[in-house]
UniProtKB/TrEMBL annotation:
PANTHER family to which the protein is assigned, alphabetical: APG9 AUTOPHAGY 9, AUTOPHAGY-RELATED PROTEIN 9A
Listed InterPro entries: Autophagy-rel_prot_9 (IPR007241)
Reaction catalysed by this enzyme: a 1,2-diacyl-sn-glycero-3-phosphocholine(in) = a 1,2-diacyl-sn-glycero-3-phosphocholine(out); a 1,2-diacyl-sn-glycero-3-phospho-L-serine(in) = a 1,2-diacyl-sn-glycero-3-phospho-L-serine(out); a 1,2-diacyl-sn-glycero-3-phosphoethanolamine(in) = a 1,2-diacyl-sn-glycero-3-phosphoethanolamine(out)
Name of the featured protein: Autophagy-related protein 9
Organism, scientific name: Monopterus albus (Swamp eel)
Similarity comment: family membership: Belongs to the ATG9 family.
Amino acid sequence: MHQKNGFTCMLLGEIFELVQLLFVVGFTVFLANCVDYDILFANKFVNHTDSSKVTLPDAFIPVDVCNTRIRDNAFVVFLLIISGVFWLHRLVKFIYNVCCYWEIRSFYINALKMTMSELPYASWQEVQARIVEIQKEHQICIHKKELTELDIYHRILRFKNYMVAMVNKSLLPVRFQLPILGDCVFYTRGLKYNFELIFFWGPGSLFENEWSLKAEYKRGGNRHELADRLASRILWIGIANLLLCPVILVWQILYAFFSYTEVIKREPGSLGARCWSLYGRCYLRHFNELDHELMSRLSKGYKAASKYMNCFLSPLLTVVAKNVAFFAGSLLAVLIALTIYDEDVLTVEHVLTSITLLGVCVTVCRSFIPDKHMVFCPEQLLRVILAHIHYMPDHWQGNAHRYETRDQFSQLFQYKAVFILEELLSPVVTPIILIFCLRRKSLEIIDFFRNFTVEVVGAGDTCSFAQMDIRQHGHPAWMSEGKTEASIYQQAEDGKTELSLMHFAITNPQWQPSQETTHFISQLKERVHREATGAATDTHPHSLSESEPRSLIANFLVGPSTLASVHFGRDISLVNHAAAGLSDGASALRSLSPVSTSLHLKGSLSAAHRAASHTPGMSKAMADSGTDARTVSSGSSAWEGQLTSLVLSEYASTEMSIHAVYIHELHKQQSRGELPRHTWHRQESDESSDSIPDEVRSRNFPRSHTFPTTAPSPSAIPTSASVTSSTIAGQEGASSQGSSQRGYSGPSTGGKVVRSAHVPMGGWAEESQPAPQQHGPLPEESSEDEMPPHIHKVNALCA
């Protein structure tokens, strides 16, 4: 409700969705059956007694004839029935949603003491702080005394964190190796809807409600039976999609036609514009990142991303576009001149159509002609992009000028026309992916939900990756070496755990993580701060070393002139805090301690307010950065609150950008000579413990409080004092946080449940049951990592 501007806006949005559905269906049926196009196109003569002028009602077929034509058309009747059933379903959902919205409205007004008129100007941090305080006073969550910021995020982003984790581990079949097109990504709203229907909320899904995974999926003894059941359900849903394909396809075409035709006529070049793809939003999303936080971050990187993609315009295509634009523009100029001289020229057949098509042709050609003032600097632009999107494969850096890098980046940042085309093809392609690709991964999906689900008190079952536990899901190559005990299967790829942890800590400075996590954050911040301030004194402002992270940090912190040298000057969102008076390099790296943070921010904000009063371009710079004005607490007035919001948001955004670039630079140095394991080289999801080497299987990893644990008897598993003590320490750490997790103990009868190294994916098995037999030998996981990218096993259809 906060991001949708209150109850009234949400209610009107739901009502107009219902009306829009009726309009599209009714208007389409009317156009297909109740219009005489021969009269409309002047192919048929109409007798008039009073006037010879043809009016629009003359082209309308009488009502009785129209009804007869509709009843005699079986396909139209079928579409109307399907549309009616769908509309009734939406109506029931609308009534349910309105009731939920009213309860949320009452909660905001009565509990949080916020009226609907104040809500659009309040920040999310203010709303979140009030929820935390209300929990202390009224115990709105009965399972724990205090709620943390992480608990709130877990409740909101439960299913989205699972989706981000599955994309990160390459579990979802969204990447395909096609014969002619090569490596492609296909991830649409329709496919995403089916994934969520199967996993989370549909009939027979893995979750029994919005907060709890079904108990049978928490045990590993019947994993094959559950996988067969899931595969059967995926098959039936795929068949249902196949049967409804004609109806959905017609709807997609009509909706796209009504939505984009006017936009294309008004701005023909809009199809040549780019947007962040649905796959890109999921791949670039941090764990525990809200929708408005993600879109604000990606919006800041839009300009740099567009400039980077425009660097690759074909010179040959540019020459052709210039000449085609000249010829089309010449014809258009003559027609416009004739029209100005005598407006009767427009009455000539196809003149108006020719003017329109020639205008579209000229506009499209102009989009392929680069700006003559543009400088080709892909490497520096790619670094600006990295500062905002935070994720980038290792092999992109240093190869920004190559078309292979450009093609891979285009999978994240695609043309709007490609987005529309994929959505139109979605009804046809989605059933194929469900039946032939997703169904084969049913066992991996079952094991994923079992192994990576933890029960958090006060939040329910959540994805363990969303706990952002370095010890359980950290990657040694991403500053977690010596701090993580995760196997390759348990590691989050591309530094997702480390970067997500830093983003959440910077976005929520009042959050108090565990002692181990706090140590990791403070150590990283101290390292960045030390190297940044040290580099600022001995680094030339215009240098940008490939081998030293400190030189890049210095370029962030020295000042706007330095930032301009690496093309940050055009990206206002990274330097506007410096224009606000935050010129000291150390001030850009605030401590995450709640006390020092609050004191430091007070001084920074006062400096920002003073600079804003003396800097005319300050407000414009912030407005151009794409930052949401509703991000932090309000001041004595709406304008002061928005200004404070902008300053704090830009402050945190710049701080996260510095840390993201630094982590990537340090990772690049540490991983030189090692084979990459990013998503462009992983053709399949990481194998389960079926493929883990024997020496890894034999290890007993101590389990922290953020991963499912049990307390097996000493006779079941030989434990050491260190393992026992680490388990106890993890449990004590969980209780100190107030957000302890409970491991699944399985059924109360039928033997004790222990963690078995012989169960695929390290699943749960019962002592009385032998480990299930493997169907066949699989390549070891280490051998997968040792293979160079070009000899990886590639499937012809599914990745």
